[in-house]
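Section handout 9: paired folding examples.
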Amino acid sequence: MIFFISIGNNFWFSDSIRNFFSLNTNLNFKDIQGYVELRDYRSPSIIYGQNYNFNIFRAYLKYKLLTIGDNTISFGRGLSLFLSYDEKAILESYLRGIVLEFNKISIYGGIKRKWLYYSSDNDTTYILGSYFQYRFFGVNGLYYKNQDYGFLTSSYLDFSNFYVEIAYRNGYDIFTFSNNEGYGLFSSISFFGIKLEYCYYDKIYESFNLPATINSYGLLSSSARNETGLSLSYAYKNFLAEISRTYDIKWSKNLLNYYNISFYNEFSKIRAYRVFSINQNLDDYVLSLDLKIKSLMGAIEYRNRKNEAQPFISVGYIYEFLNIAVNYRRFFNSNKFDYFFELKYDNTKNMIISIGYGEFSGDIVCSSGICRYEPPFKGLKSSINFNYSF
């Protein structure tokens, strides 16, 4: 393959979002890689995100060791640096600047950009740092400047069954508007299918990092500002059981409890979990069953959120390159309901087209330590992706 180009488009139109349009192009030619995303986002209210008039939202150019533009970059488990993309949480964070990647050393510098569900943090933070990684060891150090200067560093040891990363921050804290110190520790050890994880986060989060969670739900109790906890899980073949608890750093207040048990095979997956979080105002019980029989897929779920039953059902059918899906959720206390119809074409080679219509009443979604409230949606969503090489 000498030349590769990818073009993708997303379009939403609803009574709450009004309009979301994006067009992205990805180009690979020998040692040159390029990416440009054009975006237009219109919302009737700031709670649904900031208006972004049609413009270049993200772009980068890479040639061998050098990348210029909006780079995704992270280190270890995110205790000191995490500027990347998470589709579920709709987290978009990048470093707008320069990255030099050598064999074991990377040097980076620029401005932090971060969007969560199309809402940008207006804080302007400059970052300059470097990290070294070799086999089981890595160390990262960076200077940052917003209203004032600060320094953040972390180092990890990574063996097959053991991982530990420690972090230290000193300088201006945008959350307290003062200079202070922060500390972080994440460790994981596993043996015979048993995994034990521990975290201690004290004023370590500064918006350009995202420390790892100790629960598979993907939730940080206090955004890594004041929490410590333990999780214990056991996995054997197709079975998984997990329990996780988080407290404030004085162990005086329980912040989060999470219990999860699941079993899956080639045709089905059964899962039951409960999550309780004070800070995120979550209290859910969920029992779900996913099935796949030849070309037919289905899912049923019972969720109880704050004493309200919210059952869910989804049915999908695949015929060659065509995928038809329907899902429905009922809210018994409020008599609301969600529904969505989607038609998707995927030829597995160079084209994916989807179009859907439905109504979404709003929900809390958590991933990668971030919980967000997704606003109500009623309208049309479509996308097209085209890949071509010669």
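Moving on to protein 2 of 2.
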Amino acid sequence: MKNLFSIVPAMAGLGLGVVPAFASTSAQFNLMTWGNGQATVQLPSAVGLKPSSALPATGDWLVFNGDDQSGQSNPQGSLSHNFADLSGQGGAAGYNMAPSLTGSLTLDFDPSGNNTWDVSVSGLTYSGQATSMIFMNQYLITPGSPATLDSKYQVDGNGNAGTWSSDTNGGWAIQYNMDFYFDANISGDAIDVTFNNAPQAGYLLPVSLLTTQGLANLTLDDPANLYGGDFENYLLTQIAPRLPANATYLLVTQMNKVHPGYASTGMPLGVSGLVGNTTFAYTTSAIPEPATLGLIGIGGLLLMRRRFN
């Protein structure tokens, strides 16, 4: 036994101390909301707000800006929205309706290198409200899901994956593709609109970094490149103060407008239409970095070595 544990320092020196059993982690991210009960004078509610009026010439896909449209169907004060450009003629930012999103998604993380991770999407359940009468919910498609069993839906459920760089050098950048579908209450179908390998891109940031000093060595812009202001200042002044006190990471992603692969005849959105997205979500879970996991593995072995010596 002593001979076995005598090799631990050498393993650590060679970077072999990461224990695979500790390497993977999963985190549920909840979409941010800011309702009337949370609002203050300095941080007003998002209830009734959409990022802009319909079909703006320019738009930022973000609430709490001067171009917000008030009096809309956003009862829970959602900060996340889908953007449906029904004709596909609205330009980069234009849309006809913006379902306000609540719900959660689950991401799985596997270390793939020094401060890099493979990311998999294993859960997605969004409730979307476009108007007082139109609901457009969103769900993940995985291999074997009903949408994959009929070729007309144009999805396979594969590829719900991407990467994350968990350090400042990598910009805390995250990107992944998703297969998902909309289920709207305006048609008789359970699967109304589908998307295959729709790209999501943005940042997964430790909440501890959301200070002026913490962001000093980063250059963060809105992923869709629609916001003309200072995006880091937006995160600091509008998003960070609205996070729960126990939030550990902030997920910010956007999907530039893409065509669906399938749309049912009962939908106003066809395959020539376009849909984009903005997501603000948080987790209260810990996502340990690969270097930390290595220390945990080495530390555990060293404790065992002391015990058996």
